[in-house]
Amino acid sequence: MTTPAPDHESTAAPVEPHRVLVLNSGSSSVKYQLLDMRDRSRLASGLVERIGEETSRLVHTPMAGGGGPRERTGRMADHGAALRAAAEELTADGLGLDSPELAAIGHRVVHGGLRFTAPTVVTDEVLKEIERLVPVAPLHNPANITGIRTARALRPDLPQVAVFDTAFHTTMPEAAARYAIDVETADAHRIRRYGFHGTSHAYVSRRTAELLGKAPEDVNVIVLHLGNGASASAVAGGLCVETSMGLTPLEGLVMGTRSGDIDPAVTFHLKRVAGMSADEIDVLLNKRSGLVGLCGDNDMREIRRRIDEGDERAALAFDIYIHRLKKYIGAYAAVLGRVDAVAFTAGVGENSAPVREAAIAGLEGFGLAVDAGLNARRSGEPRLISPEHARVAVAVVPTDEELEIADQTFALVAPDAGQLDN
To answer: Which of 328, 369, 371, 393 meets the CB 3.0–4.6 Å disulfide criterion with 232?
Structure first.
């Protein structure tokens, strides 16, 4: 082992903090990634699941050293225990949370309302405002708050930054954001379209512009974030002008277990005719609808397998899913006036060639087309799948919400670090 030089001989410059830890805290899980913002590389990632159960499980993956994932099991009573376990794994890799190289911790927060339009350093007052938004995000904000509190307790000296799913959509005009209900009632209860998946829509719209060799302010993009949760956005010159999700993540596209758009009177009908309670209807629309409600599966790969075997329920579910997608593409083309690109992203959007092909088929009048060979080719890189001279580009752009959160966090706490390479 090399003996360190005496202090009076040391000429080493002070360490400039350049790492960001990204935390995504769910009700019983924590996802994390540690990134080096000098080159935006991942140093480690992990997932803690089933927090509070006897079967808690942590899978930690260091990105260097070739050791592969490490797993530990056993009860982790709460988010504090989960984060402490994650910190121990990071420490084992020489990446501990006590490192002077750690610049900040960035937190995904689902709902920021109208107040939080940009990443925000968490203070006691900011935390109180996030708590005040719990009624409009009861499934998400409480878990996000728990993650922030736990991280603050572990590193009270470190900036904690909240990056909001809703922030990217706060540029929508009032005509798009307002529902046509009594204004006083809407304002009193914060009822309006907020939108979600904002970090993904921001990242993908910007990366799509780069793929076209243009600046974001010169490009109009329709982004289709298609995962188990799914949303669409219309982005004009880098700003969101319309999005499919609303007050909650229930509105919009057909999703894995959520209905998407539905006549609001269906809820009254179910209460009167079926005798269902508000909670039962909530479960129906959020957990027993969408693809799983239509055919019993919410995995697009399984649905496509069933279609190939002649399953009519799976085929109908797929057709309903695609029909809704086409409606939104057409509507957002009208909203934007000029469309430069349609970008597919997230699990289904990035990996299901049949979904992309079916969603674009028949839209030639909008200047849209898919090249079958390019569409079938698998790649983890952003790519065009439209014919070479198509009037509107069709792209597949893998999303990276954690990197977007890290970028926004680091830009806030280290504004003099300069523009990072993409």
So the answer is: 328
